Amino acid sequence: MSSPLIVVTGATGQLGQTLSQLWAESPLPQYQLKVLSRSALDIGKAEMTDAVLSELKPSVVVNAAAYTQVDKAESDAAGAALVNAQGAGAIASWVAANQARLIHISTDFVFDGTSKTPYTVNQQTNPLGAYGASKLAGEQQIQALANGCSAIVRTSWLYSEHGNNFVKAMLRLMGERDQLSVVNDQVGSPSSTHGLADLIFAMIPCQNYQGIYHWTDGASISWFEFAQEIQYQALQEGLLSKAIPISPIATSAYPTPARRPAYSVLDRSRVLAEFECPVEDWKAQLRLVIRQLAGKSAATL
Questions:
Q1: What pTM did the predictor assign?
Q2: 135 in a domain, yes or no?
């Protein structure tokens, strides 16, 4: 009898690359892994989704594919919805019809940022822009089509040694500039893909996950505070040769096409209660990624 198959969408994304990288060390020897790029499975094409999944017959689909260009989504709402809403719905339809399970990655952008305390899984959603609206629509598709066999994992401020993210952007700018200004009135929680991958590895063998979960590395900090810690650790690890001044600025001084939630800390208590997975302090998770980057050439930043 062949081993059950785990299919991960979004092979070239930060999470897809991390899952591939860590799979050999995961506690899941009884499973096979297949990570699919957009060329192998474009979730924005429902017929392709059905055909590919029907051929592979996975027992679990981890949907890490997404339209993540938050600002571009404001002028391309249809493109964001095609992937984040209809794409998620197509996977949910297949999973429900084929006795499989789904772990779907969502975002803190489903909230409007008006809360003063960490958002719980049951709190009212109210996205501020097209990206958040498309991700919320995807959640709703999954809940309508595959609620009994799916988990929606919302995360925030995702970063890794792969792809494009805040940590790598800050390191590049810190190496190029004499000073830097970073927004100090948006508060949230950084999430390393390593920590998120550990959670997914813990969830996969379970058959009873259902509904919405929140996962972050547990901090409640501003982008400015995050940038300060990035510089501190990068200097320690030799990734930067000198410190530069970092100044706090207001969101209003750095306008973007899409509005960001001013506060998007997620309450992860449900995950901690239901799953046994490694829990690292956010600074320890950042150190892991910084050390990964320190082992690469500067050209990869």
A1: 0.95
A2: yes
- The catalytic residue positions are 131
**Selection from 152, 155, 154, 195 nearest residue 62 by Cα:** 152
SS (H, E, C) 242-294: CCCCEEEECHHHCCCCCCCCCECCECCHHHHHHCCCCCCCHHHHHHHHHHHHH
Q: What is the pLDDT of residues 193-247, one digit of tens each?
A: 999 999 999 999 998 899 999 999 999 999 999 999 999 999 999 999 999 999 9
User: How deeply is 54 buried, as exposed, middle or buried, from its count of CB atoms within 10 A (0-12, 13-18, 19+)?
Assistant: exposed
Domain enclosing residue 55, as ranges: 5-165+190-218+264-280
Q: Helix (H, G, I), strand (E, B), or coil: what is residue 238?
A: coil
Placement of tokens 């990206």 in the chain: 131
* 12 part of a folded domain: yes
Instruction: Report if residue 228 sits inside a domain.
Output: no
Sequence-separated (6 or more) residues with CB below 8 Å from residue 78? none
How many domains does the chain contain in total? Answer: 1
Question: Exposure string (b/e) for 22-38, b if CB count within 10 Å is 16 or more?
Answer: ebeebebeebebebbeb
Q: Is the pLDDT of residue 77 over 90?
A: yes
DSSP E strands: which ranges in 64-149? 101-107
Tell me the pLDDT tens digit for each residue of 130-180: 999 999 999 999 999 999 999 999 999 999 999 999 999 999 999 999 999
Type of residue numbered 155? T
